[in-house]
């Protein structure tokens, strides 16, 4: 059998009739439609920049997001998942909103919650991948496919928070920068503003998402659209009647801004790029570029590697066994350490006990000595007393004899 021939030896064969594998693309389409699609958007931007309004405008629906206050002590991420359907295509859309972003006095950590959220989604996917029983087809993939970064329409360029945050995010997610509330900035100012933003992004080495130009069918449109980034967008939940149609617009005393009018803003361009042309590319780049990078770093962190120090391939089993040996050695070392510590402690306690025994002994000896001394003194005193007693008795009897003698003499007289 020569089933695994080298590619250069592959023979081209002509089929003499219809076999049917030309239906493979259709099979793929059918399967994809059946499974439905998942798309996850992350909106990063200060409170009140029109994130929720833009999402409503983009998907032409009302997600009923409650406006968030400016008073939160820290940034929180809130993800909401919606099931959308257009003709027979189902889309599971998750919109993740940054609540309280840029509202704190100390904005140093504003991006941290965002980075943590991105990593957490990657980690969840990695854990599912590493399971023995995987169910990736059923798994709800929550990895963020695109981050819309809302820039404040100041006309002054980016804030430092914008640059720091985008720099932190650019290896983890596809970023499309957009100028929010673009109706508040004049036409000439807008061009300068866009140029300034691009300049600053480049100067700081921030990699934003580029619409792919390697596919011929979308090459031209993507090329021209890349030149319009950052898109200047306007969102609205209001509709006004224009002719016979109801259109999404913002009404001002001096006129009307039409959201879907390309002369008024880049909303249509954004929708075209985000939803109609490049959604699949964003999903793919998320998996092949950003997730891959995360996975690589994490596996290396866990101690896995493809090649050893001599550049020889290392199998999973080898790594596992090396880790196991290491682990056992570590355990052994720990055990030895504990044992040694135990011996030392016992010795310490022993000498402590000996010391106190000695002390007790000395105390006892002293007591014994004191006691003997007392006894001796007492004995002496007793002896003295006895002697005194004897002396007393002697003197008493002496006295008595002399008394009787004198008395007898007297009688004789
Ligand atoms: N001028 C202007 N105002 C907008 C635009 N989009 C939203 N707004 C208004 O800005 C306010 C905050 O919008 P919201 O979508 O809640 O902002 P979020 O906090 O970023 O979600 C609302 O009063 C919106 O009507 C826009 O494109 N231009
Ligand atoms: Mg909101």
Describe it for me?
Strand 8 (245-252) and strand 9 (255-258) form a beta hairpin. This protein has two domains: 31-302, P-loop containing nucleotide triphosphate hydrolases (Rossmann fold, 3-Layer(aba) Sandwich); 312-376. The relative contact order is 0.07. It has helices at 24-35, 51-59, 110-130, 160-169, 187-203, 216-226, 267-277, 279-301, 316-412; strands at 37-44, 76-86, 89-99, 146-151, 175-179, 231-232, 239-242, 245-252, 255-258. Helix content is 51%, strand content 14%. By secondary structure, it is of the alpha/beta class. Helix 3 runs parallel beside helix 4 (160-169). The structure holds guanosine-5'-diphosphate (GDP) and magnesium ion.
CATH architecture of the largest domain: 3-Layer(aba) Sandwich
CATH homologous superfamily assignment of the largest domain? P-loop containing nucleotide triphosphate hydrolases
Provide the low-confidence segments as ranges. Answer: none
Number of domains: 2
Report the portion of residues in β strands. Answer: 5-15%
The hetero molecules present are: guanosine-5'-diphosphate, magnesium ion
CATH class of the largest domain: Alpha Beta
Largest pleated sheet: 6 strands, mixed
Number of strands: 9
C-alpha Rg (nearest Å): 47 Å
Mean pLDDT comes to: 90
Order of helices and strands: HEHEEHEHEHHEEEEHHH
Strand order of the largest sheet: 2-3-1-4-5-6
- Terminal CA distance reads 169 Å
Overall form? elongated
Q: Fraction of residues in helices?
A: 40-55%
Structural class: alpha/beta
Give the CATH topology of the largest domain.
Rossmann fold
Helices, by number, come to 9
């Amino acid at each position: 059998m020569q089933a695994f021939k080298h590619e250069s030896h592959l023979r081209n064969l002509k089929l003499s009739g219809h076999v049917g594998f030309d239906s493979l693309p259709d099979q793929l389409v059918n399967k994809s439609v059946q499974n439905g699609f998942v798309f996850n958007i992350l909106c990063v931007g200060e409170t009140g920049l029109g994130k929720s309004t833009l999402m409503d405008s983009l998907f032409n629906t009302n997600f009923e997001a409650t406006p968030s206050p400016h008073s939160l002590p820290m940034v929180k991420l809130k993800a909401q998942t919606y099931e959308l359907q257009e003709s027979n295509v189902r889309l599971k859309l998750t919109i993740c909103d940054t609540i309280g972003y840029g509202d704190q006095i100390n904005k140093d950590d504003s991006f941290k919650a965002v980075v943590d959220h991105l990593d957490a989604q990657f980690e969840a996917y990695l854990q599912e991948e590493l399971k023995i029983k995987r169910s990736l087809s059923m798994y709800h993939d929550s990895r963020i496919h695109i981050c819309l970064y809302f820039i404040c329409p100041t006309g002054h360029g980016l804030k430092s928070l914008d640059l720091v945050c985008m720099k932190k995010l650019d290896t983890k997610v596809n970023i499309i920068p957009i100028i929010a509330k673009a109706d508040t900035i004049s036409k000439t100012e807008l061009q300068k503003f866009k140029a300034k933003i691009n300049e600053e992004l480049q100067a700081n080495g921030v990699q934003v998402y580029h619409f792919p130009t390697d596919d011929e069918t979308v090459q031209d449109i993507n090329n021209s659209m890349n030149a319009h980034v950052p898109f200047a967008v306007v969102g609205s939940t209001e509709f006004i009647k224009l002719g016979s149609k109801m259109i999404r617009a913002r009404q001002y005393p001096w006129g009307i801004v039409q959201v879907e009018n390309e002369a008024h803003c880049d909303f249509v361009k954004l929708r075209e790029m985000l939803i109609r042309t490049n959604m699949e590319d964003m999903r793919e780049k998320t998996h092949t570029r950003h997730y891959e990078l995360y996975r690589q770093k994490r596996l290396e962190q866990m101690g896995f590697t493809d090649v050893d120090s001599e550049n020889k391939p290392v199998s999973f089993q080898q790594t596992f066994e090396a880790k196991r040996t290491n682990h056992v050695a570590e355990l052994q070392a720990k055990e030895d350490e504990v044992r040694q510590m135990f011996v030392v402690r016992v010795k310490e306690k022993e000498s402590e006990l000996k010391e106190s025994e000695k002390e007790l002994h000395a105390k006892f000896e002293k007591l014994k000595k004191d006691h003997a001394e007392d006894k001796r003194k007492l004995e002496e005193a007793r002896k003295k007393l006895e002697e005194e007693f004897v002396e007393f008795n002697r003197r008493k009897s002496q006295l008595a004899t002399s008394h009787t003698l004198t008395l007898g003499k007297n009688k004789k007289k």
